[in-house]
Amino acid sequence: MWNVIGKRKIFLGTSGTFMLASLVLILVLGFRPGIDLTGGTSWQLSFPEETGLEEIKNVFQKETGFIPSVKKAGDGSFIIRLPETGEELHQNYIGFLEKEFGTPVELNFSSIGPTVGRELRARAIWAVVLVLLSISFYVAFAFRKVSEPVKSWKYGGIALITLLHDAGIPAGLLALLGHFKGIEIDTNFIVALLVIVGFSVHDTIVVFDRIRENLILHRGKRIVLADLINESIRSTIARSINTSLTLVFILLALIFFGPPSIFYFVLTILVGTVIGTYSSIFVASPLLYVLRGKGVD
Amino acid sequence: MRNRKRLVFFLVFLIAVSIVAGLFAYEPLFKKWTGFRSWQLGLDLAGGSFLIYEIDLNGVAPVDRDSVVKGLRDVVERRVNLFGVREPKVYTEESAGANRLVVELAGISDVGEAIAQIGETPFLEFREIVSVEGDMAVFSPTGLTGRYVKGAQLGFDQITREAQVYLEFNDEGAGIFEEVTGRNIGQPLCIFLDGEIRSMEEDCPTVQAQISGGKAQITGRFSVDEARAIVERFNAGALPAPIKLINQQTIGADFGKDALTSSVFAGAVGTAVIILFMLIYYRRFGLFAVVALLMYIALTLAVFKIIPITLTLAGVAGFLLSVGMAVDANILVFERTKEEIKKGLNRLSAIEEGFRRAWPSIRDSNITTMISSIVLYYFTSSFVQGFALALFIGVVMSMFSAITVTRTLLRVFTVPKT
Asked: Which family does it belong to (chain B) (predicted)?
């Protein structure tokens, strides 16, 4: 029943397709970077008097000559995107908005200079690369005692491919959301990716650990690797799913009841967690079989 | 069974510590009883402003940079303290070769005013008149500026009751002042504030005599509040290097409070679902995991509070994620134990075997999460650091609760079948 290895071409093909699609989405659509990565101003405020997006845009056009992007937030407040705005301009904007719509309540005002943004972006990329590499090296190190019939660096390499898969698909999803719904990639998104990477490898380790144990158990005997992997998956699948499930409960609670400001952060982690559980069974294990040494069944 | 007695004692001790920790972490109760330390809420939960300035050190010799940066921090801190903000934080950081000054102001209502006061040096300068061409006077700087001001004091003119600013110069300034007044007797001497005077009559008092001792007064141009503000700023000191605001974030107090309330609620719901799941799926074993989970939550929150970790929205999220991962080790152990029971081991040895065999995968998977959080901590700015730290502490604590606490519970409450 659990012939994952037998059907590996289907699973690997599906995952490969999704990964490729994500890569294409990221390359073609790109991300919509948030102000913390590029510099700029995000301003969330609400007005005592009823007003609409167009009115706000019109006031800005009349007073400043440019039309900012204005969005309505879930609680009826407005989020205005501006270029980097110094305190003087900020006060100036408050002045003319106040005249038009009454004294605004400022929920959130952040203005970030372009140098800070550039620096954060560079650091974020470094962080992602470093996490991916160090986890892969750790997995290779942890599995150093089982170099037969699969070399331990291959466990690390497969962990890396699986992690790219688990982080890549949510990233593709966000490129899509950025294009159609204007969702921006900010530092939180990078954090979400790293959390996914740190967590999704858990399930992979659980399966690999069982394969490692079974391999050591059968050392010196003739083994059929495909059966051994299938058996390892079968006996660990319940715990793989359950460990992810407890995290999914928390994430779902945060999505439904948590603060709206971290909605997409949580959603990204949720998608990554589900994909990570899938990939530990249907990507990492089949890959282990595909990359087995010569002369192994 | 001396061994068992010791286990029971250890368990009672753990539970007692957890109860104390839980009470300590639960603010309303603990505060009512003792008034001891409150939770430190980050700006995004308490509301407030986060300002980052870039320090321009171009005009400063490399050897002096450290002391200038330190002096700047002190001056800004003194200015910030004037707002009466609760626990303001002012610190410098060096990043990519640039020196930055970070100011955190909790619960301030008028950030615009705060920014104006932090960044503004009241640039005071005495200028003398060199010639008059028609109606226009030609001014020349005397070199006497606010830099030489040692202290300032608010006073009132005895007759007009107008607010006055008394200035006291340091020794160097006193020397210059004496010289300048000496060569301008009978002439007007103009006091420029931020490069401007309002009019000759108002801002250019006539020098009556040479003034030694380094004391001067500026009269008749301020309201009481203005005079007080200038005095305060002079006393706080002039900025030793120019600064520029490059990053500003202000969060409304209600906004932060809503975020905190809804995260706590979501966390409670999520935890309740986890508890239900563990009880339904793992029955008796699940009950032990639930006790361990509750102890984990109490202990971890207490650790956060003792350190103390400033609780940000990201930190709360990180902690909640760690709650979602905390029972993972239990699940791995229980599944393994069930397997061993199926193999025919008795309950007690199955449990021991379950812990022993599940340990490598628990260790390896927790280490990967620790790696992620360490990298996050060192590669990011303060907002994310809170998340990384909370996640790291959470993972370490959860290993303790899932292994030590659960194992002790199981050992105490599993009676070997005779």
From this structure: Belongs to the SecD/SecF family. SecD subfamily.
